[in-house]
Amino acid sequence: MERVDLDTRKGIIELPYRMFNPRDLYVVHAAMRDVLVMRCEILHMADVMRYEGYCPHFRALEPGEMMPTYDVEVDEDENGVINEVIFHERVAVQ
Would you kindly state where each structural domain of the chain is located, as residue ranges? Predict the structure, then answer.
């Protein structure tokens, strides 16, 4: 992977609790392996783990811009081998 300046590549990822079981931990690992986590909190009302951090896959932010939230898509083949992890920036509903 080429070197990327992480200073402006901040974002939020929310992973559902159901992913934190022995059967699916490999998916969590694939989603989070490139994320430098700076904060993590458990949101019981939403049933998610919320992570704030830096990631080379996040869009570079402009000064003063709020951190976006990213949805994580994990592409697996029929044998459960992970081909790709894609971060989709959530679009605010107006």
Answer: 10-89
